[in-house]
Amino acid sequence: DDGAQAVAAFRRRVAAGDPAVASQTRYAVVTVLDRTVTSVEADGTGYALTHVVRLALDEAGADQLGELRPPPRARLLALRTLGADGRVRWPERIQGKPDLSFTGLKPGDAVEYAWIEPVSHRPEEAGYVGVLAFAGWEVPTLDKRADVIVAPPLTLQPRPWHGAPSAQVTTLPDGRVRWRWQARDLPAIPHEPGAPGARAFFPLVDLVLVPQGTPDSVAGDAAAWRAVARWYGARLAWLTAPGPEARAVVAGLPGDTP
Predict the structure, then answer these.
(1) In terms of Cα–Cα distance, which of 111, 202, 206 is closest to 156?
(2) 119: which residues sit within 8 A by CB, 6+ positions away?
(3) Is the dihedral of CA 99, 71, 49, 35 positive or negative?
(4) pTM above 0.90, yes or no
(5) The predicted structure's pLDDT at residue 235
(6) CA proximity to 218, closest of 152, 129, 156, 133
(7) 110: which of 55, 59, 173, 235 fits an S-S bond (Cβ 3.0–4.6 Å)?
(8) CB-count burial class (<10 Å; 0-12, 13-18, 19+) for 220
(9) Cα distances (angstroms) measured from residue 99 to each of 58, 75, 92, 145
């Protein structure tokens, strides 16, 4: 995917009065492209690829996008500013500072970055791959796609929350299995003081890697938590049950007067 084309597509939609993006232009930043690919081989090793394009819509957005800190083990593939005037600029790196600085950003400029990171899991244990979010604090997303590709004997157990979309699952010619999530025009959520965390209500998918044949633990987790709730309910009933003195006081209280 080309970052400049993604920005141009957004601008065309705005110019055409597309109602799906009209409300998104009131935010400081909009993510016009969000791509991730995670690939895990049979031995548990693999890579995670990230490609994002974010557009500053006002001065606050330009300030917000002015610095970026790539992950420590990431290999940078693309890192540039796509100017509203068509020029392409590259960020600055100050010695001893982990952040990259996109100097001179103005409203209408976009920041594009892409990197690849190594991933590693013990095949006999697998583990947590990450989380997909289908909403964002104060930042809408126009076009999101996430692929997770897993080779046997491993498999993926997605755990959706709060109405997150389902994946399209495809077995590839080499026997690996791909889970693909696609979504467009994802909303921005206003971040108000005292608001609960994103985990409480954002549409999310937890990505859990397990050996093939492992029972789906989502149903098991739900049953286990119901059992815990019953246990705590019984214990609270026992702890809060009135003793003899409380019963005596209640018995001595006058009854209702007709």
Answers:
(1) 206
(2) 38, 40, 45, 46, 47, 48, 129
(3) negative
(4) no
(5) 63
(6) 156
(7) 55
(8) exposed
(9) 22, 15, 9, 26
Residue-wise DSSP of 130-174: EEEES-EES--EEEEEEEEEE-TTEEEEEEEETTPPPPEEEE-TT
Q: Token pair for residue 179?
A: 């889970």
Choose between 248 and 143: higher pLDDT.
143
The answer to whether residues 154 and 40 touch, using CB atoms and an 8 Å cutoff, is: yes
Position 128 confidence tier, pLDDT thresholds 50, 70, 90: confident
Cis preceding linkage at 211, omega within 30? no
- Strand locations in 17-74 (E): 29-40, 45-56, 67-68
- Record the tokens describing residue 96, joined without a space: 């001893």
Is pLDDT of 258 > 70? no
Rounded average pLDDT over 174-178: 97
Confidence label for 253 from pLDDT (cuts 50, 70 and 90): confident
| pLDDT at residue number 224 | 46
| Single-letter residue type at 142 | L
Query: Which residue has 């029972």 as its token pair?
Result: 215
Residue in the block written with tokens 């059992």: 227
The 154-161 sheet, strands edge to edge: 127-133, 204-211, 154-161
